[in-house]
Amino acid sequence: MSVKIIIGYLRLFNRVLQQEQIDLSKVVSPELWHAFQNCLENPDEQDFDVERYALLLQAAQPHFTRPITLVLAEHANLQDLGLMGYLASTSFDLQQALQLLQRYYSLVFKQTNLEQLNVQQLPEYIQIVWSASYPDYREMYELNLALIFKIAQSIVLDHLAPPQMIQFGYAPHTSLYHFERFYGCSIQVQAGQYAIRFSNQILKAKSIAADQQLNQVLSTQAQQSLSRISSIEIQQQQFKQKILTYIEQGLVQQEEVLQSYVAKRLYCSERTLQRQLKVYQLNFQDILDQYRLEQSKLYLQQGKSLSEIAELLNYADQSAFGRAFKRWTGYTPKQFLKSL
């Protein structure tokens, strides 16, 4: 299942291309460029998915000396986030804006609440955290993180102190230096989770555009929009996320038969698990291979040895892992590292 994004992201990207006079029509495939232009012209009739958007960002990156995601964030306005942006702009203060962001974050995507976003408020700070299960979406994660920072800046009109902490779930394709300069703080990388943390001192900063009556109307619209999202798509993503979570736990505990372990955690038999997967048009081995591939790339970049990775991913030995990696990518692990 592809995850669709709202038209605001496409318009933002197109606006930056026009301002910088960049022509990608001869760089990307004709099919991708046609789909991009067609969606811009007919947003109510055409959809655009995250995978293709990430390909556009990657194609545009060589034209910029800084991460394209930061360039987009600097050119963005709240309306590019659609209804979510209007909700933030009419919020009473940053605290309300972040609470609404948590509730309606899935409206950034047109089909499904891909990643659950959580706002965690503690005595001294508030942080926004969400898991990241798809390394191919890393540019999208980076862009959304930068846009959350942009939302905070637009509401807190006084000078916004640098975040107390920024965390990336995947190492970016460009230097961390650019991101540290953008946010004004150091960046840490922790597999599979993005986060941004603010001091509680800025939470009560009032927004000059606050309009509680309009905000309530928009909140009602947002709730109605959520209710229209296809329940089967949400259920499919949630079920897949459960499978991934239990696969990760099973690998940590060195469970020999992962499918059996996952079935037990779901309180069902393996046969029942297979039937449930079939209902959601999923395949257990595909999910497991996808997870192993993503983790193996991360482990390789972290400098772990092949024997360590084989053990972490529950392979009999490093040769078995090497064969699986080449089957997935067409490269041996050493060739993959050399390509980086």
Automatic annotation (TrEMBL):
Residue ranges annotated for the HTH araC/xylS-type domain, each copy included: 241-339
Annotated coiled-coil segments of the chain: none
GO molecular-function terms, A-Z: DNA-binding transcription factor activity; transcription cis-regulatory region binding
DNA-binding among keywords: yes
Pfam families: Arabinose_bd (PF12625), HTH_18 (PF12833)
UniProt keywords, alphabetically: DNA-binding, Transcription, Transcription regulation
UniProt GO cellular component terms: cytosol
Signal peptide (from-to): none
Name of the molecule in the record: HTH araC/xylS-type domain-containing protein
Protein source organism: Acinetobacter venetianus (strain ATCC 31012 / DSM 23050 / BCRC 14357 / CCUG 45561 / CIP 110063 / KCTC 2702 / LMG 19082 / RAG-1)
Highest classification ranks of the organism: Bacteria, Pseudomonadati, Pseudomonadota, Gammaproteobacteria, Moraxellales
